[in-house]
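A further point concerns the way the authors explain their paired sequence and structure data. Since the whole study asks how a given chain folds, the encoding of that fold should be made plain. A single example would do more here than another paragraph of explanation. An entry of this sort, consisting of the sequence and the corresponding backbone structure tokens, reads as follows:

_____
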Amino acid sequence: MNAHIYAFGSVCRGGVTYESDIDLLVVTQGLDKLFNPDLYSIYSYSRIAEIWKEGSPFAWHLSLEARMLYSPDSSDYLHELGTPTIYRSAARDCNKFLTLFADSATALRAGTNSPVFELSTIFLAVRNFATCYSLGVGTPDFSRHSALCIGVNSLSLSRDSFLTLERARLLCTRGIGDMISRDEVVSVVLELETIGDWMRTLILTAGKS
């Protein structure tokens, strides 16, 4: 088997919970039917080398947290790539996730027929925003709770609203958890302005990183 296999994510950082899955990366030469794309993130060697040169958040995530599970020849491909290029796209990426948040916030305020989907999208936007911001300022946090783990710049949101957003994400991606009630949706809507203000404030700092 000519491939390198790695674990990454919560299982490697010691943040496993009942809801956690195991993130697995396969680096291979080309299409390999041994690996189910529903279970593995599959990348070619050349594409991984490219994202290392781009200095993308995913490259930094793998560089800092991935652990090798299998090598065809005892080599560690990710380790041999060295340190990824410095991440310089924090402001651009944060703006992208602000736009994603704003679109879902607008839909929720308008009474969308798909509130769980929009709440899930907001959770994704908030988490990825915080990850990009934290990496841009030099203190990366790749956890799903990254928005709550960036010190004085953490998102100030009620615990219930944050848990509602997280639950919506699990419902959309894995189909597990209790459904979101109308009252819970309303509670989150009341705090959307807080989330938007937090994002817009941090973008000003991210742009200087």
